[in-house]
Amino acid sequence: MENIAFFGLGAMGEGVAANLLRAGYTVNITVHRSREAADRLIALGATLHQSKSEAAKAGDIVIFCLPNSNVVEATINEIWNELEERCLVVDTGTSSVRQSFQLAERLCSRGIQFVEAPLAGGKVQAAAGELGAFVGCSNQTFERVEPLLKKFCKSVQYFGPVGSGSSAKLISNYLVLGMVRLIIETFHAADSLEVDWAKFYEIIRQGSSNSMALQRIVGSILEDDDYGGYVFTVRNALKDSRYIAELGESISQAVLSDTALKLFAEANELGFGDLQVSELLQREVRLQLSELSSE
Fold it and tell me: What's the CATH code of the domain at 198?
């Protein structure tokens, strides 16, 4: 069984790494921000290294679960000299299609295989090994990576060469972020019109408006007074929206609207980048967004 160098022990990365350890893989890690996730993985058998280069040198497979393409590129630069021919690099984050192409070409020049496998799901699904993977790579590389992905994914779908997996993931996020935007704006309007949220939510849940996004955003507020029920930050939503806009520019017909990008850009401009998207329904946040939109 091949050794793994794993980078990115955030909300999803920790769960992914834990499932790989339970499957019998040797997982090499480093500490970036918090020691807590690393300690939990060490207790499961992970090997801690003092540097990214040391961890990469110990791995036949390098897995990234990082926040954006720029961080992936910076990490590649840091471990570049440790990557050997026949090494497999897997990016499980939501990345720019353009930058994924560039990374694939760079790695291919050294005989290194690259897989884009952006994940669908969140922290709960990661811990349970029930994520989904949008895979883009060569056919030969997919044969190598599929058994690995199935150790932490419930559904692994192959979309074609590099670029196709990221494109599929981004239009999936386009759908989700569009729903999130509509839910936020709808309940902003309900507040302005003095429509009772609880009664409104109870009725629309019975029709086509019902969705997991609605339940996680509004249901969490009404049932648990939890405005952070949708665990996805405004900053990440803005990053994905920008990648989606970049993808839209590559399509001959403008089919991808930038309305979600506008909302998340405004929220980030107001200093709400670290909030979860569902926290944009907090009253003081709603008022500031309304004021900015009316200017």
Answer: 1.10.1040.10
3-state SS assignment for residue 257: coil
Domain closes at, from 110, 145, 161: 161
Mean local confidence (pLDDT), 259-266: 93
155 plus 10 within the same structural domain: yes
Indicate whether this model's pTM tops 0.70: yes
Domain count, the chain: 2
CA–CA dist 42, 39 (Å, integer): 5
Is residue 217 within 8 Å of 184, Cβ to Cβ?
yes
State how far the Cα of 272 lies from the Cα of 9, in Å rounded to an integer: 23
Residue with tokens 């029920």: 229
Instruction: Say if CB 234 and CB 275 are below 8 A apart.
Output: yes
Mean pLDDT of the region 120-144:
95
Residues 89, 79: contact at Cβ < 8 Å?
Answer: no
Among 135, 161, 187, give the residue marking a domain's end. 161
Q: What is the mean pLDDT of residues 203-217?
A: 95
Phi-psi sector, 27: left (phi>0), alpha (psi -120 to 50), beta? beta
Among 184, 174, 178, CA closest to 217: 184
CA dihedral of 50, 52, 56, 61, whole degrees rounded to 10: 120
CA 33, CA 45: separation in Å to the nearest integer?
20
Q: Could you tell me which residues are beta bridge partners of residue 4? A: 27, 61
